Amino acid sequence: MRQIFISALAATALFSVTPALAEEREGLVAECLAALESGDLSRAEEIAGEIKGWKQLRPTRFLSNARKCLDGVTGERWFYAPSIGGFSSKQEQERQERQRQEAERQRQEVERQRQEAEEQKRLALLPRKCALKEEIFDLEESVEQLERTVAGLERDRTAQVLEETGNQCQNWFEEDKRAALTNDICSKILLEIGLPESGIPERLAQAESDLSSERRQLWSAERELVFIEKHNMTPEEYTEQKEPTEPLTARLEKFEEDRRRYALGDECIE
Questions:
Q1: Domain span at 261
Q2: 10-residue stretch averages of pLDDT, the chain, 270 residues long
Q3: What is the per-residue pLDDT for 114?
Q4: What span, in angstroms and rounded, lies between the C-alpha atoms of 169 and 189?
Q5: In 3D, which of 270, 255, 268 has the Cα closest to residue 132?
Q6: Do 194 and 206 form a contact (C-beta atoms < 8 A)?
Q7: How much is the pLDDT for 24?
Q8: Last residue of one domain, picked from the residues 75, 98, 118
Q9: How many structural domains comprise the chain?
């Protein structure tokens, strides 16, 4: 509360017109009227310019004479406007409005020129931008293909080493069972592939094949049941009903075209 009170006092001191200043202003107003009466327009205009800049005026006896001074110098009708704390006139307000409109027009023009420059720069860079997008799209395709190739070769390399190691372990087993079975590497591999001539690897492979086949049949039966219960039709009937008439190759081409368009953007597609 004390701080607010001090701030209020400071504001009062700042905007208050002291008696000395009021007396000085009254003298200037009187001098302006005298200059107008004597025809000294230069002095009157000088004083009127100073009066226009007076702010935070209180209704004092010289306000009326100050308006007369401004009226006589400018030929306009002036009035004291408490909203701005100073003198104004209709013409002055119109001038200020014109200045505001001109400043706004200039601001809009600067903004228009900035946007136009940005658009010109965008259009100038568009060919390079589109070329880069297409290059990136093609490089991503190439990188993805090479990654698949590298992964496949790595798998082949691993499988080749494992196969050859397995062959060597089986040969070693036939020569020296104890040594092969107690070897850290061969014991693990023989556990995976089985012992030579035991018949277990073949039976295991057949069992795994049978298991895979049974699982596919189970999935097919469950899928058909779902379609019958949900759609009251078989999966084949449902597929025939939903299958597009467009050939597969055409659908693939359209998919590839849409994927490229999405990657490059409409602005880069002619």
A1: 233-270
A2: 37 51 78 81 80 66 74 75 65 78 93 93 89 89 93 92 90 89 89 78 82 89 80 76 63 73 73
A3: 94
A4: 8
A5: 268
A6: no
A7: 79
A8: 75
A9: 2
Letter string b/e over residues 119-132, b meaning 16 or more CB atoms within 10 A of that residue's CB: eeeeeeeeeeebee
Please tell me the number of Cα atoms within 13 Å of 58 on its side-chain side: 9
CA atoms of 199 and 204, how far apart (whole Å): 9
- Paired tokens of 180: 């092969």
β-partners of residue 80 are 87
Residues 200 and 208: beta-carbon distance below 8 Å: no
Token code pair at residue 50: 């100073």
Taking the C-alpha atoms of residue 145 and residue 153, their distance in angstroms, rounded to an integer, is 12
**Inside any domain, residue 117:** no
Token output for 235? 């999966």
pLDDT at 116: 94
